């Protein structure tokens, strides 16, 4: 199986590149494409912004149509699209319905799956407290112990409060560029330590099991 995997940001790409190698065998292939934000689905499902801006949902209709045409030409092996998104504060069912409408308008339609990090990608890190403590031995247990897996609670801020000097308030004051760089650092340092079998995040297990299911086809 070949996996085309789309991530909404650079830190997601870093984490996914490490995780996928932990989950699926080398007989499968994959390519990860990162974007510069999630954006929103355009009206009429027509790309609504400059492609050079690389905003994922803005370009999704065009991307899915392109994959449908490309996959149609594959004869020797199967391929799927996996799109990994932060749910943030969206309603899961309605958001997934909107996204599947994009896929269903395509002809040919590529095999496509949406996997959500609930609430944010940092939920997968917080699903393994040992991994965080290995990467950041001084992480604050008083903060980590208040986290409920896959809860809507300001997930990246929770992680920042546990491991960033001055917590999320200090990090936010340094601006979005610093936040992005810090999230990428977390991905680089925490992801290699994740125990994929014992992670406590339900949304992580959905992603892992979907990959394993498809890799066995």
Describe this structure in words.
The protein is α/β, with parallel strands linked by helices. The protein has one domain. 48% of the residues lie in helices and 12% in strands. It contains ten helices and four strands, in the order E-H-E-H-E-H-E-H-H-H-H-H-H-H. A four-stranded parallel beta sheet has the order 2-1-3-4, sandwiched between helices. Strand 3, helix 3 and strand 4 form a beta-alpha-beta unit. Helix 1 packs parallel to helix 9 and helix 7 packs across helix 8. The longest helix is centred in the first third of the chain and has 17 residues. The mean pLDDT is 93.
Instruction: Report the sheet with the most strands, covering strand number, pairing sense and barrel closure.
Output: 4 strands, parallel
Q: Treating each run of at least 4 consecutive H or I residues as one helix, how many helices? A: 10
Q: Give helix and strand order, one letter per element, not per position.
A: EHEHEHEHHHHHHH
Percent strand equals 5-15%
Number of strands: 4
Task: Order the strands across the largest sheet as they lie in space.
Answer: 2-1-3-4
User: Low-confidence parts lasting 5 or more residues at pLDDT below 50?
Assistant: none
Rounded average pLDDT: 93
Overall 3D shape? globular
Please name the defining characteristics of this protein.
10 helices; 4 strands; globular; 217 residues; alpha/beta; four-stranded parallel sheet; 48% helix
Concise account of the structure shown:
The chain has 217 residues and is of the alpha/beta class. The protein contains 10 helices and 4 strands. The relative contact order is 0.16.
């Amino acid at each position: 199986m070949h996996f085309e995997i789309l991530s909404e940001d650079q830190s997601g790409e870093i984490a996914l590149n490490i995780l996928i190698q932990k989950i699926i065998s080398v007989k499968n292939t994959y390519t990860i494409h990162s974007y510069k934000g999630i954006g929103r689905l355009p009206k009429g499902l027509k790309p609504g912004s400059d492609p050079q801006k690389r905003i994922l949902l803005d370009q999704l209709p065009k991307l899915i149509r392109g994959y449908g045409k490309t996959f149609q030409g594959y004869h020797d092996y199967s391929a799927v699209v996996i799109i990994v998104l932060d749910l943030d504060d969206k309603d899961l069912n309605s958001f997934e319905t909107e996204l599947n409408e994009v896929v269903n308008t395509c002809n040919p339609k590529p095999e496509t799956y949406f996997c959500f990090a609930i609430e944010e990608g940092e939920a997968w890190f917080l699903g393994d407290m040992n991994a965080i403590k290995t990467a950041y031995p001084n992480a604050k247990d008083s903060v980590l112990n208040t986290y409920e897996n896959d809860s809507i609670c300001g997930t990246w801020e929770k992680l920042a409060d546990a491991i960033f000097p001055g917590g999320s308030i200090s990090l936010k004051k340094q601006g979005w560029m610093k936040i992005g760089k810090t999230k990428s650092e977390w991905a680089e340092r925490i992801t290699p330590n994740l125990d994929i079998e014992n992670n406590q995040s339900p949304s992580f297990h959905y992603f892992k099991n979907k990959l394993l299911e498809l890799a066995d086809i």
